[in-house]
Specification:
This protein is α+β, with helices and mostly antiparallel strands. Helix content is 23%, strand content 38%. A hairpin with a 2-residue loop joins strand 15 and strand 16.
């Protein structure tokens, strides 16, 4: 029988030493192979990391990130530290990819190689049935898609899931994030955790949109591949507003009738990966949250029930995909979902939906990673279970 279990603890204690003591006392006698630490961005992360490292067994690995909200089975929290301890039938190796801004592809490749070296396996020899990768990046570097190219360069079949380290600051000029990798706390980097296990696992994603069958085509983009200049051969913002039946001023993400209500998705097989517009610009173009291709066809999605769709994910899809009774989940929740739910007065219901999750720990992230894609407005998860083999 193979299984992976997760035990979590949470504290609002501000002092790093007292916070570490409270968290590890709550865990009890568990001796984890891997600890995750997701902590509010207004804390002294280096002091917290040092306090945790001093109290944990030498062989326990640590990964973590600053957040814009922390998640466990009690819901979504602000200003706390959520720590998880993973135990069971798995090996885990960590790779740090530094200098993300300067060379994101190289950072991804280096992180993959370092993790593989720890496991004693070449990247191209990883078995996608027994190996899965978790990626956390410095979200404010906007380098996810290049990073993922590097991680997957020598084994594109490997499944990846994760998201961007975050902060609660709303002013873009003041936003920054940090990552925890064992005893280091770093910026401008990504951490890659490579799991090897015979226990059941699944990488999943959930969003609160339904497909409509209505499509649009990006017919002209700029040199950065992030701005749509034309959609369906017309000025991008004007055309999108026509499709939604609103004005251009109503489009910006977060406004009730705009991009958050009807974003675009890339259809991949039977799945729809949300790759949404972000904001209309003064020149009539639209800035997207992801890289876009000229000529790509995207499907317009329609907002569904926020909390109910999240609850269904935990009660139905996640157990089905893991194969029965899930025992652990690491959750990467788009921060835009969090503040959009607040704007609609539905945050309490959304938070309550997380009580239906298996034993879990997570955070509100700055854009999400799923199956090698950067996506947005999505909850991604790496879940584990147990079997009788």
């Amino acid at each position: 029988m193979a299984r992976i279990d997760l035990t979590s603890a949470r504290t609002s204690e501000r002092d790093p030493e007292r916070a570490a003591e409270a968290l590890l006392t709550s865990l009890g006698s568990v001796t984890p192979k891997l600890v995750t630490v997701f902590a509010s961005s207004d804390r002294d992360h280096r002091a917290l990391n040092a306090a945790l490292r001093a109290r944990l067994p030498r062989g326990t690995r640590i990964i973590g990130a600053s957040t814009a909200g922390e998640i466990d089975r009690d819901g979504i929290h602000d200003g706390t530290v959520v720590l998880s301890a993973l135990t069971g039938d798995f090996d885990v190796a960590l790779g740090l990819g530094a200098d993300l801004s300067a060379d994101a592809i190289g950072a991804g490749a280096r992180a993959m190689q370092r993790a593989c070296d720890e496991l004693g396996v070449r990247p191209q020899e990883l078995d996608p049935r027994r190996h899965v990768g978790l990626v956390i990046d410095d979200g404010f570097r906007f380098k996810k898609e290049e990073l993922l190219l590097g991680v997957l360069d020598r084994n594109p079949a490997l499944t990846l899931v994760g998201g961007g380290a975050n902060c609660a600051e709303s002013d873009p000029a003041k936003q920054s994030a940090v990552l925890h990798v064992d005893g280091e706390v770093v910026t401008d980097a990504a951490v890659f955790a490579l799991f090897r296990t015979s226990a059941p696992w699944a990488a999943l994603r959930s969003h609160w949109y339904r497909p409509t069958g209505e499509t649009l085509r990006i017919t002209k983009i700029d040199e950065t591949c992030t701005r749509a200049l034309e959609i369906d051969g017309k000025p991008a913002a004007k055309r999108y507003a026509e499709l939604l039946g609103v004005t251009v001023d109503d489009l910006e993400f977060g406004k009730p009738g705009g991009f958050a209500r009807r974003p675009t998705a890339l259809k991949v097989g039977r799945e729809h990966f949300i790759r949404a517009p972000w904001k209309p610009l003064d020149d009539g173009s639209i800035l997207f949250a992801n890289l876009i291709d000229e000529g790509v066809e995207l499907e317009l999605m329609q907002l569904d029930d926020l909390a109910a769709s999240t609850q269904r994910f935990f009660e139905e899809e996640l157990p089905r995909r893991v194969g029965g009774d899930p025992t652990a989940a690491l959750l990467f929740h788009c921060t835009a979902r969090d503040w959009y739910a607040k704007g609609k007065g539905e945050h309490a219901a959304l938070s309550k939906a997380f009580t239906k999750a298996p034993p879990s720990a997570g955070l509100n992230v700055f854009f999400e990673i799923y199956s090698g894609f950067q996506i947005n407005t999505t909850l991604t998860a790496l879940a584990f279970g147990k079997n009788d083999d």
